[in-house]
Amino acid sequence: MSSSTIQVTDSSDLSGQSTSRLVLQMARRDIATLFRTPWIIISRSLAFIIQLFVFAYLISGLVVKFPGFFPYYAVGSVVSVVASISFIIGYDIFEEAEEGLLDYLLTLPIPRREFIIGRALGGAIRAMIYTIPMFAIVAVLENFSNPLSLLAAVLDLFLLAFGVTGLSITVAVSVRSANRFDVVLALLELAVSRASTALYPLAFMPSYVAALAPFSPVTFAADSTRAALSGSSLDILGLAGLLAFVAIFLGLGATFYFRRLEGGVYA
Amino acid sequence: MIGFDRAGKRFGTLDAVKEFSMTIQDEEILGLLGPNGAGKTTLMLMMGTVYRPTSGKISVNGLDVVQHPNDVRKIIGIAFQDPRVDGILGAFDVLNWHLKMTTNLDKVEREDRVEKVLRAVDLWDARNKRTWLMSGGMRKKVEDCKVLAQRPKIAVFDEPTAFLDVPSRLLMWKMIRELRDEGSTVIVATNMMDEAERLSDRVAIVNLGKLVAIDTPEQLKGKTKGGEVLELTVGNGQEFPRECLTQFSEVQEVNQENNKVTVYLSGGRLLLPKIVETLTNRGVKIDSVHLKEVTLEDVFLNYTGHRLE
After folding, report:
1. Which residues contact A234 (CB under 8 A, 6 or more apart)?
2. Choosing among A4, A30, A99, A104, which should be mutated to test the B contact, i.e. which has the most B CBs within 10 A?
3. Range of the domain at A191
4. How many CB atoms are closer than 10 A to CB A143?
């Protein structure tokens, strides 16, 4: 490498560097890590198939009070998986902060707000890529073929993923102890997924779960996705709930993030 | 030009950096010399807009780091002390992504630059090996390569040759000098005296979050009293009779740290026999004697009262 071949980067060189491009690059980084471990997608898809064809078939035969439990459970499983995978970004960010990688990312020429959006977007797209094979299996199995319905369902799932990544980032930057972080995130994941209508209908839930379930973002997504796939009218309430969930937790995530950064607690 | 104007950073009750004022000239290599915990990394992270200063001002090429953080980030590149790379990615992908984020190079230019840098540091053959599988030295090279490939206006290296073998250290110094010669301002934080002395145009000595001294290595050494240093190792636990030495007009200063005594003096060659005789007569057991010219280590000891370890 000789001095005659490489020029020092002038600040004006970056004037054409659009923020949206940087957001996408930030998101691509999170997505790239997924493609570096494709066996995770394969193994989780296989686990999903086994769960669907063994557990769900067996249970749907036992459930007599609720005809059509299998398709209900199949769609709900996909929604649950989206939520579960979206939580991973929080673990990533917590680990990056502990390992100091976050300091490096914060030196890159991307505004803080866009940085957070990029991370949340990356986490959400990663969850979607991860879940698409499972969603395809369910779509084929249940003969969901209306493109608009499928598109609406994917939108519901994406909004859920985007909101959950925001929630996960909020927790990652709010909780400082690694052990406490693991417990809080695991409990939260359990609460939003299990206290929801993803895997069982509201009418059959114990009262203490039924009281919480209508407020879970997973419920919004599950109900809205089922409505979209069944071709019935748009679930406005579910969509509105999801949008509010995204806005609240991306906003909260950003606020906590800024506060934590300004306090210099990553030292 | 980079300016620190009474800059400070407080973490809770700890002042990591306090009342720090310094100016770094364009296209110079400034060595930040100080022990671990002196505040070097905090200074660099404030300059890089990762930490916001709690007091004072820092400007980078006229841009205030608090008011224009993103503009500052566009002209700065930091290679960290501990490699900050995605372990799951190979060196090529790490550098390629870094350049995507920090430059406007097109794909061909970017990949060409990554290849040149990786070949230069002998990592081309290992370009696809996941960095978490690499040795400490290889990972450190990848970290340094981020800035060497980026070619920023302000290049910051935190202990750039830690974990590197001697040939790699010399190569890294050469590449850093080339960066300066092409127009970058380079800041190198180090706790290695030879690195600071051989690489830097100027050296800033930092201790306990404060600037202790700043000048060229030669000027710093020249300012040190006497110009020569006599190092004595005396018997353990022995009370050292300092006045035995300060009676000589050639002796400027005497410092003692445990059983090591450092004497700043002039005309040491002529004075040495007299000093040994005087101390022996006072019953001081001398284990070793070493007379030498002033080094940066002596400068550091002289300014801070302790050795850089």
Report:
1. A152, A227, A228
2. A104
3. 19-58+70-263
4. 8
Residue pointed to by tokens 């960095």: B131
Model ipTM?
A: 0.81
Residue A5, pLDDT above cutoff 50:
no
- Phi, psi angle pair for B9, to nearest 5°: -140, 125
Contact A110 B86 (CB under 8 A): no
Residue to mutate among B61, B78, B102, with most A CBs inside 10 A, is B102
pLDDT of residue A2: 44
- Shortest distance between the Cα of A36 and any Cα of chain B, in A, equals 7
Question: What is the fold, at CATH topology level, of the domain defined by B225-293?
Answer: Alpha-Beta Plaits (3.30.70)
Are the beta carbons of A243 and A164 closer than 8 angstroms? no
The secondary structure of B39-86 as a DSSP string is SHHHHHHHHTTSS--SEEEEEETTEETTTSHHHHHHHEEEE-SS----
To the nearest 10 degrees (0 to 180), the angle between helices A88-99 and A147-174 is 30
Banded model confidence at residue B306, pLDDT cuts 50, 70, 90: confident
Contact residues, chain B, for A32 at CB < 8 Å: 89, 93, 97
pLDDT score for A8? 56
Quick check: B115 contacting A, CB < 8 Å?
Answer: no
Q: Determine which of A3, A5, A9, A105 to mutate to test the interface with B (most B C-beta atoms within 10 Å).
A: A9
Closest CA to A267 of A84, A153, A86, A100: A100
Three-state SS letters, B111-165? HHHHHHHHHHCCCHHHCCCEHHHCCHHHHHHHHHHHHHHHCCCEEEEECCCCCCC
User: What's residue A266's pLDDT?
Assistant: 39
Instruction: Tell me the pLDDT band of A179, cut-offs 50, 70 and 90.
Output: confident
Q: What is the CATH number of domain B2-220?
A: 3.40.50.300
Interface of A with B in 105-124 (CB under 8 A): 106-111
Instruction: Give the other-Cβ count within 10 Å of A2's Cβ.
Output: 8
Domain assignment present for A104 = yes
Mean pLDDT of B18-27: 94
Instruction: Specify if A64 maps to a domain.
Output: no
Query: If pLDDT is split at 50, 70 and 90, which confidence band does B284 have?
Result: confident
Distance to chain A for B163, nearest Cα, Å:
18
Q: How would you write A134-147 as a 3-class SS string?
A: HHHHHHHHCCCCCH
> Cα(B87)–Cα(B103) distance, rounded to whole angstroms?
22
Distance, CA of B149 to CA of A176 (rounded, Å): 35
Largest alpha-carbon pair distance within chain B? Answer: 76
pTM comes to 0.81
Residue A63 placed within a domain: no
In chain B, where the domains are located: 2-220, 225-293
Q: Position of tokens 């995770």?
A: A40
Coil vs helix vs strand at A111 = coil
Assess contact for B39 and B53: CB atoms under 8 A: no
Answer yes or no: is A65 within a domain: no
